[in-house]
Specification:
230 residues, mainly alpha, 10 helices, 81% helix, 0% strand
Length: 230
């Protein structure tokens, strides 16, 4: 019970923080300025920025935490991580290189819903409501959405066409390396929690926090969409 209270308290502290940093979901000011100054391929710099985006992108981390929450076998972890990575890579590369774009607020709102979906699935709510979704297809689909969200933000920058293909590929490689790092820490944390004996007892509270964070992100981005239309 004490652990559950701590989880709920963490969620209460987390939600205001989400609103504070939600504006940073895109590429940070200094990084954006650097990207706009790049001419020609700069593999290591772009790979670093890609990795940085993944390990500091709490929307990605929340979704991945939800996906990994009840995965115990390494092959399942590898499968779902690969599905998310493939989806993320396809729309990141295709979006930027082909100039495919959508409203960033709406895409980020869907990303918030992806977090809500996974928490609801973990809570068993979808099953109780008679909603059956292939989790593998859902993770791939939301991977596409997450990658599209990032590609939309990159397209808001004045990126040089010189070396653009190589730089976007480098950025994407960095994103996937960052995902490996993030997943490693998420899985280690889950493994330590599972050994403590309170994991199954407090899983409900943890996923409620994840769902609340997803709803906060959804609401923030939807509000931004309507406010910016005025």
């Amino acid at each position: 019970m004490q652990t559950r209270k701590l989880i709920i308290l963490a969620g209460a502290l987390l939600l205001p923080a989400l609103f504070t940093v939600a504006s940073a979901l895109g590429v940070a000011g200094g990084d954006a300025a650097f990207l706009e100054s790049v001419h020609g391929v700069q593999f290591f710099a772009l790979a670093y920025l890609g990795a940085k985006h993944m390990v500091t992108g709490y929307d990605h981390l929340l979704f991945l935490a939800g996906v990994m929450f009840f995965l115990y076998r390494l092959k399942d972890v590898a499968l779902y991580a690969t599905l998310f990575a493939v989806g993320h890579s396809v729309t990141l590369l295709l979006g930027v290189l082909a100039g495919i774009k959508a409203n960033a607020f709406l895409v980020d709102a869907v990303i918030g819903l992806s977090v809500v979906y996974k928490a609801l699935e973990n809570l068993g709510a979808l099953r109780k409501w008679g909603i059956r979704i292939d989790t593998r297809a859902a993770v791939l689909a939301f991977g596409l959405v997450h990658g599209f969200g990032l590609s939309t933000k990159l397209q808001d920058l004045a990126l040089s066409r010189e070396g653009l293909v190589g730089n976007i590929l480098s950025f994407n490689i960095g994103v996937e390396l960052g995902q490996i790092v993030a997943l490693t820490f998420i899985l280690l944390a889950l493994q330590l929690w599972r050994r403590g004996g309170s994991f199954l007892r407090d899983a409900w509270a943890a996923n409620v926090v994840i769902m609340a964070a997803g709803l906060a992100l959804f609401g923030y981005q939807l509000t931004g969409y309507f406010v910016n239309r005025v």
